Amino acid sequence: MELHLIIIALALALMVGVSLGLLGGGGSILTVPILTYVLGMGPREAIAASLFIQVRPAQSACSATQNRAACAGRAAP
Length: 77
Prior knowledge:
The protein has one domain (about 5-65). About 75% of the residues lie in helices and about 0% in strands. The protein has four helices and no strands. The mean pLDDT is about 80.
């Protein structure tokens, strides 16, 4: 991958991160077009990468919460 594409992708990723911080959601709607049109990924690969990117922070947030029943998909006692 060329250096200028990496720099553009990092700048766009920073913009996505800031917008997610401000809006609180909707990362896939921004991430998939960046991965597809800027980095040249196929649509299926871009969707899979976007899901992977979003799952890791969600798992970290779940493990950091005190209510582990909500993270496991169970009702709290």
